[in-house]
Design brief:
The protein has 321 residues and is an alpha/beta fold. The protein has helices spanning 54-62, 70-76, 81-98, 102-105, 125-134, 150-160, 176-188, 241-244, 247-259, 273-282; strands at residues 2-18, 21-35, 38-44, 118-120, 140-144, 165-169, 191-195, 215-217, 236-239, 263-266, 288-289, 307-308, 311-312. It is globular and about 60 Å long.
Length: 321
Amino acid sequence: MQIDVTRDVFRLAQVFTISRGSRTEAKVLTVRITEGGVTGWGECVPYARYDETLESVTAQIEGLPGTLTRAALYDLLPAGAARNAVDCALWDLEAKRAGCRVWDLAGLPAPGPEITAYTLSLDTPEAMQAQAAKHAHRPLLKIKLGTPDDMPRLEAVRRGAPEARIIVDANEGWTAAVYADLAPHLVRLGVALVEQPLPAGADEALIGMARPVPVCADESCHDRASLPKLKGKYDVVNIKLDKTGGLTEALALRDAARAEGYGIMVGCMVGSSLAMAPATLVAQGAMVTDLDGPLLLAEDRENALIFDAAGVHPPRPELWG
């Protein structure tokens, strides 16, 4: 078994801004695992918020033994970007060697398209209204907030897209007092979900707080080990493969979270279709699907995922799985 890791850069269609900063390109790691003349591959996006860099994640992957199984990965790597790329590459390799699709290996029904959110970059209210108007035909828009001037932005987006369903992501940018003040306005403007309003280390304030709009755990939820700390704070969990450490744990987290009564959101970092492909399996029947990474790119992988009026479609075998 040979494991190779390379860096790839994808230009974004426009500058993408959240409360933590701006970017013009997506930097990802691509892992290829070859055995018996067959190669499986996967992608991850190291995230500075979780103390990951391209260099540190590459070192984790290059330090793996020459023989791997998905089960063994749990003892070799923690949940995170490195394990994600390797886990997904192993799934792809196994499916190719077996001559079947990944969902058959996982015992899942054949997946279908899921409506995905489209994310509007953080900008001035006027610019965000223009963005919203341009994408008003999309059924679900996601707004990046988390600044002192969020209400004018939210009002502007609603004016630009009066019929769209809207979810907001504060990226840990609010305090409990700010969230309590904004909550009635979120209801008034028809917001369907708010992601991670408070910092993950300060979300105890959500216990006992009225949640007229469902609150989703993002930075507070990584894998199944996160679930006990979410009780009483959140209504929904955002499953991202770069947090769970791959498809294997993502599917397990989805089932465990549903069993505990949480709604499911499936999200992503800004990456290519290869990163989104495994997540389309997890997104089946989710309350919210947010797999728009490829839509934000100026360029993508060959055999990219199909996005149309029905949503994001499962990957073709030429891409993954």
